[in-house]
Write a structure and sequence with these properties.
alpha/beta; Elongation Factor Tu (Ef-tu), domain 3; Rossmann fold; Dihydroorotate dehydrogenase B (pyrk subunit), domain 3; 3 domains; seven-stranded mixed β-sheet; six-stranded antiparallel beta barrel; 7 helices; 15 strands; 21% helix; globular
Length: 261
């Protein structure tokens, strides 16, 4: 883990309230693995003492980028930074996604901007798989063309039906599983809201497949000291304990996660 004074290379709108921020952070960019995150100090936000966590979307050469949505004071302030400014960036942090098993078909399931760490995974695997993207509306569907450019099959589902099929992304996943899933040797990788993660994990367990889930929790320190992001987990012997998402995760295999506690 390193702290870099990262130069802002560009800040571009990705539609609606979404932004892609590119910074030059050579030490972090060279070490980051899919599913890991960076902890960013937000400029011009005097009342904010703590950094904010963001999944790494791209990491190429000396640069890395994050994909985020303006949902509060912190992200609105971040959207105001311009090329040439510097940001204090700490990372790479956490435990990312593992390399897909040999012979498996990577099946990625994303909710909204949960697509960001899955894109880096798709770029790094060196093989093609399936992507399922779920969102509230067409304006919340991100990065599909990026995946398709690398030969990934994609399915989009929106709750209002404005893009792809109407309904939850897990319904689209169920349709695919009914036709091809049983014989596809699928290995699941998911990032999004808890309800979606739980549903993907339950399907994987029912099929005796692995599902790697990237949990989203409010974080304070980002290094496991403050205990703001605890999650009930289960060890290999079935014993439950409280883990720290920032340090032990954010990626866990579905059988590790104890939901509803």
């Amino acid at each position: 883990m390193r702290i870099e004074q990262a130069e802002v290379i560009s800040q571009q709108s990705s539609g609606a309230a979404y932004w892609e921020l590119v910074v030059r952070a050579p030490s972090i960019a060279g070490e980051v693995r899919p599913g890991q995150f960076v902890h960013v100090r937000i400029p011009r936000l005097e009342q904010a003492v703590l950094r904010r966590p963001f999944s790494v979307f791209r990491a190429e050469g000396e640069n890395l980028s994050i994909l985020y949505k303006t949902v509060g004071a912190g992200t609105r302030a971040l959207a105001g930074v311009s090329a040439g400014e510097t940001l204090s960036v700490m990372g790479p942090m956490g435990t990312g996604f593992p390399e897909p098993d040999a012979g498996s078909v990577p099946v990625l399931v994303a909710g909204g901007y949960g697509v960001a760490p899955l894109y880096l995974l798709a770029r790094r695997t060196g093989r093609k798989g399936r992507l399922f993207v779920g969102a509230a509306t067409a304006a919340d569907v991100l990065c599909v063309r990026d995946f398709e450019a690398y030969g990934w099959e994609t399915t989009v589902a929106t709750e209002d039906g404005s893009a792809g099929t109407k309904g939850l992304v897990t319904a689209a996943l169920d349709e695919w599983l009914a036709v091809r899933g049983a014989g596809a040797k699928a290995e699941f990788f998911a990032c999004g809201p808890d309800g979606m993660l739980r549903a993907v994990g339950e399907r994987a367990i029912a099929l005796n497949r692995k599902a790697w889930l990237s949990l989203d929790k409010h974080m304070g320190c980002g290094i496991g000291a403050c205990l703001a992001c605890v999650q009930r987990l289960r060890d290999a012997n079935g014993n439950s304990y409280w883990g720290r998402v920032c340090r032990d995760g954010p990626v866990f295999e579905a059988r590790q996660v104890v939901w509803g506690q």
